[in-house]
Structure formats: structure tokens, C-alpha cells
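Anyone else keep sequences and C-alpha cells together like this?

Example one:
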Amino acid sequence: MSDSKNDTHPVVTKMLLGDKMTDWLKADVLESRPGFCRLSMIAREEMANGFGIIHGAITFALADSAIAFAANAHGRHAVSLTTSIRHLAAVHPGDHITAEATVTTLNHRIANVDATITNQDGVCVADVRATGYRKKEAW
């Protein structure tokens, strides 16, 4: 994982220290701030399913990381309650995909976050909606 723009929010930096999944994805944090995160990665051959396309869990995982970083950068631990994904186009090995997550509503206990995943051609390959629970613990 690299921090090419050097504008990773301190909470996201702390979260990344123990985040084995985002590390395995080799996702780059392009931008993170309270309420927003953009991550990108290259889809690898070992991520393909039996159809030779990238497994839906990969796009889900990239979006899930972006969602978590966007919600947690507000300073309190936030965990997922529900998350749903719509797969809109196939992702292939070698594709460069980017997830952008935006907190749409935030209150004392609940955060709603929307995310899109696009490929290198700007095609939206999936969109995600998540609801998270904000715990009392601060980062």
C-alpha cells in the first residue's frame, strides 16, 4: 500500500496498521478525510473466479475498506451493520479499479455511506450502500 498523495487522514493511517485485507488487495489510499475516501488497486489474476472475471468479493472488499475509512475518519469507531452491493459490469484481471466512498448521513450512532467502484475507463462496475454503527470509542 502506498500513500502517493500523502494526504491520508491520521485515523486511516492508524487503521491501516492492522488492516490485512486492504494490504492484501494492495490498495492505494488516494485521498481520505472525514466523510470521504478514495482507494484504488489493480485486479490480479488470483482474484478471478471460475468464469475468469474478478470475484465480486474483491470489489466488495475494496468498497468496504473505503467505506470504513470514510466513516471512521470522523474520529469514532464505526462498524458495519448492513452493506449491499450491485455488480454492474465485469472486472477483469489487470483492470485498475477505484472505490470512492462518501458518508451521506451522520448522527450520534449511525453513519450511512454510499460508494461507487469504477474501472480505468470510468465505467461504474459496482455501487454499494452501507449503514454503520458508531461506537463510543474514539480513535
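And example two:
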Amino acid sequence: MMAEINLTTDQFEQEVLQSDLPVLVDFWATWCGPCRMLAPVVEELADEYDGKIKVCKVNVDEEENLAIRFGISSIPTLLVFKNGQLADTSTGFVTKEQIEAMLF
């Protein structure tokens, strides 16, 4: 099973921009309550759509450059990339259905 990828700045180009699949990138931090609420939802999507989407997580405390690059000012923030382009974004807790609507 392809679990979530803990994304670093070095991997971003390859894992996200060059991906053939839609990519869900979850910007989060350990101290963020809503991030912890969202984590199981994101994990469920990663399992359910394994092979159809790629799910990456970015810890904003560890990967500050990526957070700055995408102007992440509050978390959780989800970014959806399709064909290397940013296709959709959401901030705060969202439902599984809302994320699916962003992806498909």
C-alpha cells in the first residue's frame, strides 16, 4: 500500500510536479488541533484511492521553505495539484466529500 509521503523540499518537484496522478498535499503541524482532526480523513483518502491519487504531507515546522513558497499562512491547508499545476486549495478542517470534490 502506498501510504502518505512525508514530503521534503527536495522531493517536491519529483513527487508533486512530475506526478501523473492528482496529488493532495496536506500542510500541517504537530501542535495544530484541526490538523490532527483532518489527519485520519486524509489517511482514509490515501488508502481508498491508492493508485488513483498521491497523498503528501508537509510538516510546516520542518519544511518552512515549502510553506513560504505556497503562501501557507494558516493550517491545515490542502493543495491539489493536477498535471503539475495547482488546481485547488482549502484551509481549515474540511470533510472527506469536500476533498474528493477537489480531487475528482
